[in-house]
Amino acid sequence: xxxxxxxxxxxxxxxxxxxxxxxxxxxxxxxxxxxxxxxxxxxxxxxxxxxxxxxxxxxxxxxxxxxxxxxxxxxxxxxxxxxxxxxxxxxxxxxxxxxxxxxxxxxxxxxxxxxxxxxxxxxxxxxxxxxxxxxxxxxxxxxxxxxxxxxxxxxxxxxxxxxxxxxxxxxxxxxxxxxxxxx
Amino acid sequence: xxxxxxxxxxxxxxxxxxxxxxxxxxxxxxxxxxxxxxxxxxxxxxxxxxxxxxxxxxxxxxxxxxxxxxxxxxxxxxxxxxxxxxxxxxxxxxxxxxxxxxxxxxxxxxxxxxxxxxxxxxxxxxxxxxxxxxxxxxxxxxxxxxxxxxxxxxxxxxxxxxxxxxxxxxxxxxxxxxxxxxxxxxxxxxxxxxxxxxxxxxxxxxxxxxxxxxxxxxxxxxxxxxxxxxxxxxxxxxxxxxxxxxxxxxxxxxxxxxxxxxxxxxxxxxxx
Lengths: 183, 272
Description:
By secondary structure, chain A is an all-alpha fold.
């Protein structure tokens, strides 16, 4: 789970985070280079607004700079936290909610995959896209309504005119297919 | 929702996707917050849901966002350092006490010499101490003025960034500075803040100067950026006449000290 850093050293996320704790700007820069594309793309997909997505991106990395000592490897993955926090903030903005909670205590994330290099990220991008492409249309719609639009299963049922049980089944089936990329 | 004591992974995945209605989500969250096993399973479910982030079309944020971030953390860091608790005051107090003790010992040493010599020495010591204290007061006064100036700069910066009607103007590099970029935050009442990144280093006799180009009339100088280019970018605050309406902003290369009107080549330009 490591990549070659700008200095040629193998640098894990946690090594970078430890250096950020020592107020090392180069370490923050390296972490930003590693994940800014993923975080920005996710927030932009939800909000369909590059400026709003950039604001979320910058705020998340500023939070890492200010509170790096609060991140604990025992609670899961830093990349996972970034993706979940970006999604939560974007959905809150989209649905105009003011209550955003992305504290690590509540949002520990365990990623079952390596994303600490761009090569690993590209591999995963290809795998996930292939799974999504091959999903039945109704499963893909249900999954994307939930994750990218912040709709509950009852809202999706209302939107699609399908029974609630059917919507739940579609989401679960889609998640089972998605998890195959981890095997 | 739960199977026996614990919540099923499928339910946790629905929660992680944000697909549970608020009431169900609150009940699940209440259980998870008191259950170590479900907390671990929820972290795993969040990881599964996060796979969907990889389904988004991949784009890159503007280069200025990183420059702004680095300028923001640098401003934060400088503010923390500048307003750190001034421990020097205690050290100085200890030094004065030490000097007083020394003066007392000197006086005891000279107690047996003629009174005129003692009086002359005391007089000299008092005069010397007076000059030291006056010099220290002058220095501290200058330091206080510098701190007030720094604070005013930061307040000005915050005033521009926090104002709801502040507009953002992205500047693109031009000519020899094609790789540079910048962002102007402009508020007609509060002033101008410029973040600029990757500006080439200038010779010692040149400065960057920022210009507000109004809706009508000649460009108005918003300040000098000083010599030098910086990989991460730097931040400047500037002032323009209140309530000026801007059509565009530009940065040009001018002689040190600046010019009343632009004369040198443009390196950054952006329209509002």
